[in-house]
Request: fold
Amino acid sequence: MLNLLNLSRVELEDFITRDLGEPSFRAVQVWRWLWAAGARSFAEMSNVSKALRAALAERAFIYRPETLEEQRSRDGTVKLLLRLADGELIETVLIPDERPGSDRRVTQCLSSQAGCSMGCLFCATGALGFVRNLDHAEILGQVLVGREVLARDYGRGSAPRNLVFMGMGEPLLNLDNLLRSLETAHSEQGLHFSRRRITVSTCGLPHGLRPLGESGLAGLALSLHAPEQELRARIMPKAARWPMDELLAELERYPLGAREHITLEYLLLGGVNDAPEQARALGRLARRLEAKINLIAYNMTEGAPYAAPSPERVLAFERELWSLGLVAVLRRSMGADIQAACGQLRASASNKAGDG
Reply:
């Protein structure tokens, strides 16, 4: 049996025309039901012939991740713990934009792997270790689940406005399924996200940056977190195996659209990477790449070896970057009261299961 959500647009057309002997317009109908309408069953596909619905039911099924737990923050953030068909757990987060005039715009944070092999010392997901890659249906199934939550909360037709691959896992270590998912996310007859509404966050891996850039399917955010090689190797030991000089050279060649910039993500760790001289070093890198900077103040997670920076250190770091004329934004920490840091909810659920 075949999960139709695992098929690309071309693969679905091949299946319906070649295997089931139906005309190609039927594939368009089914594709719209799967992704635009979010159908959970073939019975919902009212404009599809009964014969095709019966044939689909004999050969295929529709399966997306199921919600095991839902947590809601005081700031409106919603975190979902999802169970996959094999029982593995992943997370996705719905983050509201509360700026004036935002009209309930929501960004959805997606996972690309169950667990993560990168082992960054500040990351709860890294402590879990790597389990496996997510497939096309499991990656974009998170969007379908998120859309249902928003429709329930805000009314029919509500959906995430932006997608960010900043959840569990390193996206470039699941490159094939990432690119397949980005293609489907762009489909005008499906989820219909523009490139500017999708961001892939990566530690930066030699084999993956160029294919992602050449695809033209998403913006790039680099998880940098240190302005020089030695410190990056200490806090991100596996990511730093690609020397920073080589990484920066590759980023200088990264293809960008008009008015697009790479974003450097920088997690401020108290007493580790939050000094003024480190801000100046980060500024030099940002100028070299003509990049924007997203600052994130670290929220302590249980068992992590780092502390949160003081508000004074955060402000001083931010002002140092501003004094250099750089675009630097301090991202507000969302969902701290609901274990919204990536991997925390899954770890908590795993601990409960072990206690049982």
About this structure: Residues 66-355 form a domain with the TIM Barrel fold (CATH 3.20.20.70). The longest strand covers residues 89-96. DSSP finds twelve helices and 14 strands in the chain.
